[in-house]
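INFO  loader      accepted 1 record
INFO  loader      residues=206
INFO  predictor   begin
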Amino acid sequence: MSHRAGLDQASVVEAAVKLIDEEGIEQLSLGRLAERLGVRTPSLYNHVAGLPGLKHDLTLYCLHDLLDLILRSTVGKSRAEAIFALANAYRAYAREAPGRYALTVQAPDPGDQEVQALAQQLVDVVRAVLAPYRLSEEVAIHAIRGLRSIVHGFISLEVAGGFAMPVDLDASFHWLINLFISGLSQPTVTGEKERIATENETTSLA
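INFO  predictor   done
INFO  writer      dumping tokens
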């Protein structure tokens, strides 16, 4: 194999994206990627900083990819409609691009500011979608974690073939997200119950 004309950093990353979606993130290696590109492994070092550099570039690509999808999916929507759009976008992405999705759920390296910034943007989109529910800062974090856990858990079981009972999966997913949304309006979740109790106590002491 010789140097392939037109090979650059972007084409290397795009080839790696196809590799992880088709074969899984665990199959990613410079040797396997070079084989798919029809070049010698050392040639890849002209475009990526080894396997760690490739994974960094891939993670940025995938986070940008997912961020763009959920922004387009949720724009112009609010409350339940926005939450359903967000959840459905995540699920569709995981099913259509399993390798890319796997990279987006990994906790970013604290020292990688580029990845940290993009990961934070994803969290901020979820926070914005939940904003109409007027959750406190702490409760909002619980809700963000809860929604991500619900969606990721369902996706993981679905991809692994873990649902065997004869009930439509889309209906189950819709039911689960609707249950989450219903919970957001409960006073014990929003903190409204505690606020009212505090106000009543203050009034009685006045």
